[in-house]
Amino acid sequence: MALTIYLAGFDVFRPDALAQGERLKALCAAHGHTGLYPLDNTLPEGLQGPAAARWIYEANCALIRRADLVLANLNDFRGHEPDSGTAFEVGFAAALGTPVLGYLDDDRPLRAQLGGSHDAQGLLVEDFGLPRNLMLAGAARLVRGDAAAALRALDARALKVPERAAPAP
User: Fold this and answer.
1) Cβ 74 vs Cβ 102: under 8 Å
2) What pTM was computed for the model?
3) Beta strand pairing status for 34-36 and 141-144?
């Protein structure tokens, strides 16, 4: 079954963000799917600051609404947690009932990743044996590896990808 897949992740901040988006979309196409990348949207000329941010937010939410699945890069970003925007997108997809497939390089439990029961600030590190916070791990099927590994592991039935009704005329 061909899926429309929203490509969530901090890849949009890479120096080669547009090229990375094309690589991810090509990877989806190689698996028979269509990738939707946040930078597919072109910011209207003249928008800046909060107005530009709001436009990007709404455009990305619209792409997620179009998607059959969200493929989320949940690797560490600026520390030991995934990108907060990606975490929002995972939660938004979960609220819509859209399946999420997350990928990460390190699938050891959080305590192993962070070196114990408390972090550097003395805050408790949860101990559920999961590689990410329970809310992300509960919202997504997690796969160790990169986007290619996640797409290889994709099983639409296991993810309960709903059949979409034909759009109204």
Assistant:
1) yes
2) 0.90
3) unpaired
